Structure formats: structure tokens, C-alpha cells
Amino acid sequence: MDxxxxxxxxxxxxxxxxxxxxxxxxxxxxxxxxxxTNDPHVTRSEMNAPHEEKEEDISATILHHxxxxxxxxxxxxxxxxxSIPLPVILWxxxxxxxxxxSKHDENDHGTEIFEExxxxxxxxxxxxxxxxxxxxxHGAYVALDENAVPNNAKPFDxxxxxxxxxxxLSIIFLVLIFTKVAKSYRVREGKAPKGLQxxxxxxxxxxxxxxxxxxxxxxxxxxxxxxxxVFFFVWLNNLMGLIPFFPGGANxxxxxxxxxxxxxxxxxLTTINGNKxxxxxxxxxxxxxxxxxxxxxxxIIGLFTKPIALxxxxxxxxxxxxxxxxxxxxLIFILKSVLVAGIAVPFVLFISVIELVVGFIQAFIxxxxxxxxxxxxxxxxxxxxx
Amino acid sequence: MTILxxxxxxxxxxxxxxxxxxxxxxxxxxxxxxxxxxxxKALDERERSIEDALAKAExxxxxxxxxxxxxxxLLKLARAERDEMLKEARILKxxxxxxxxxxxxxxxxxxxxxxxxxxxxxxxxxxxxxKGKVAELSIQIAEKVLRQQMADKSKQxxxxxxxxxxxxxx
Lengths: 386, 170
Fold this sequence. Notes:
Chain A is mainly α. Helix content of chain A is 60%, strand content 10%. By secondary structure, chain B is mainly alpha-helical.
């Protein structure tokens, strides 16, 4: 009893210690960011930057790590960089432009204009822009806004980025896994499940019995394919995001474009399956008529807030987990001592285990809320209101 | 969009949105056709067959219980019948034995009577024969006596008395 008390005390001290450090470093980073708003890329260009600028570099590095990229980077910089270049596909004013990302990645400060199929472009921090008419103070052909994001016009970017490759890898894995499972159902018909089949069957049954059936009632069968697909897609991508190296490491479900797409699918399904009573609730809510001008807009806003909440929830949870892990690792660089690894690495391990659970829980929550929204749209009204 | 575009982290990227839509729809159609349909069907079928099997087992159990109770009933009936039969048999046996005893007694009595009759008739016959014999002997004696009388009177008398001494009538 005494020992566990001491252990708990120690653990909470550790947590407090780390929390203080994270808070301090983020405050420092913020202050630094404020100082450097007029030349934010200095930190990247100057490798011998002083100590304060190094800290700024860390928050930029973290954001860089959770963002999408035109290459699959492994390690090293410049000459010693090891990465998989990915195709860049841009829909520009001069039509479709495509090239490998390795072709124009030496200069990502926007100081050099390159031409591809007669289209002038600049690479600024791994993104492609039309060059600004004039150079800024650092010789870059960009015009930055107050968030240090270029105001330049952009070609429409439909590149095969790291996230796109990761997405396609994940769907290849899913198709391979589940066609194999489906095959074992055919081969072992009427027998007990075995191997991969017995591993995934409880999860499929979990989706059916604990997600689809309670929310959708007897109409669950029609929505099973969608719910199963969403569940396993989100779960696998959450897990792949936790693997620090290829084929994982892309922050797919922590990217708002992907969660937006998923939430939009649920929204579309909800909208096209909405029955009379669902729309009745929206346009003729059960309130006195003089409340209609208030209630109808609220109900209409409610239609959109549900998928938006879905989108933000998944994105924020996964992104937060990634940022937390990267921040803990960054403590080593912020404190400039390899000894910090003795604290940081166990914490990273601890958070990673939590993230494993979060990966499942978020997949579950996304699926159950999708089922709930669809269930609300298809539910029959049992009591007639007048 | 301008509000979301404030931070690059929360500004959706149209290219990735398009690709993820393509990827997800592709995944959805592939899995629906080649995975979920057969899997869900197989699961439903298996559940149905398990339910069927359980229902059948329950039915068989009830049938079994019914049969057992019927058997027991039958056994009980059979036992009762056997007891009844045994009882009847015992009664019958007693009756038969009693009858046989009666008959035997009757027969015995008859035979005894017959024997007595036989004896008495034999006795009568014997007495008659003895009487005859006695008569014959008497005649012979009388003859001899008469002959001796004819010869010597004293001797005749002695003879008569001798003879009379020998002859003993029972």
C-alpha cells in the first residue's frame, strides 16, 4: 500500500514535470514565432542558428511531420537525404503538369523559379505556387500573410502525396485481408472460424451487434457494408499512423481532408436516406408555430454540425496524439541532453499504447455516430404527434 | 473556407480530398462486393444453423423426456399387470390345488370304500368258502364217522371226539 502510494506520487511528479516542460517549450515557441513572423524561413535555411531559433524549428518540425508531403522521407537532409520521391500532379493555367517531386526539391525556400511545360512555379516549404511578381526580403517569390502562409495563387494540386500513397496502401491491405477472410468463409463453410478469420470475426460481429443493430434496428443490414468499411478504414489508418516508418507514418486519419471526406459520406447517406419523419422534425419541429423561425434554422444548422463534429473529432484526436508523441521526443532536442530520453522514451511508449486504444476507440466512435445519424434519419416515428 | 484556411493544419487540401474520396469509394465497392456480402451472409447462415441446431436439440430433449415418461408409464403399467397376473395365478393355483385335493380326497374315499367293499365281499366269499369247506369236511367227517361207526362203536365215538378236537371253527 505504502509502496504503491510512493509510486503514484512519483508518477504524478513525472507527469507534472513533463507538463511544465511542454508548457514552457510551447510558450517559448510561441514567443519566438511572434518574433520571427517577418522572416519565418530563416530557421530552416540556417543550420547554425542560435538556441532560440532551434526551439522554433521544433514546433515547425512537429507540424511538418504531421502534414502531408510530396515525398516519403526516411532520414537525412540535402545530399544525404533518403526518401521516396512521389509524383506531383498540378492542374495549372497551362494545363496538366506532372513531374517527380525529387526534380525540384533542392530549393524549397521559393527563391528559385522553375519552369515545367512552360508554367513558372516556385517550391515554398514543399508546396508549389505560382511565383509572386516580386521577391520578398529573403529573395523568395512569395507574399506571406500574417500566419506565414503564402498568399500566392496556387495551381490545383492533385499530386500523389504521402497521404495518398498511404491511403492506397491501406486500401490494398484491407482488400487483401478481407477477401482472404471472405474466402475462408467460403472454403470453411459450416465450420468454426480459423486463423485470420477468427481474429476478425469478433470485430465484424462487434460492428454488427454493438454498432449497427442498436442504432439501426432491423434496417441494419443495408448499412453494414458502409459501417464495416468505415470502421476498418479508420482503424487501419489510425494504426498505420502509429508506425513510425514505412509503410506507416503518414497522418491519414489526422488529416482534415480525409476526415472531411468520411464525414461527408455519412452526411450524404443520412440525407438521402432521411425519411418523412426525419425531414418533418427539421421543417415542422414539435414546438408552437411561433417558434418556427427560431427552431427551423437551428434544426438546419444541426444537420451540418453533426458531420462537422465527426470530422473535427477524428482529426483532432489523431493529430493530438501525433503531436503529443512528437513533443515528447522533441524534449530531448529542447533540453539538448540525451539523458532526457530516459524520461521521454518511456512516456512516448506509454502514450503510444494509449494511442493504440485511441485508434480503436476513435474508429468505434466514428462508426457508431455514423450509425446513430443514419439511424435517426431512417427511424420510423412510433407515436403520432399533433 | 477562409476561416478554416487560417491554419494550414485545418485547411482541407482539395487534392487529398479527391484522392481520398476515390480511394474510399473504391474500397467501399470492392469490400462490399468481395468481402462484406459473403462474410455477412456466411455469418447469418451460421447463426441460423446454430439456432436451428439448438432448437432441434431442445426438441429432441423434449421428445426424449416424453419418451422416458411414457416408458416409465408403460413400465409401471406392465409391473401392475404382472402383479395382477401373479395374483391371479396364485389364486388359480390355490384353487387348482384345492380342487385337486378335494378330488383326491374324494377319489381316495371312493377307493377306500371300494376296497372295503372288496374286502367285505372277499370276506363274505371266504366265509362262504369256509362254510362250504366246513360243510364238506363235516360231510367227510360224518362219512368217516359213519364208516367207523359201522365198524366199531367205541372207536367211532373216539374218532368223533378226535375230529371234533381238530376242527376248530374259527
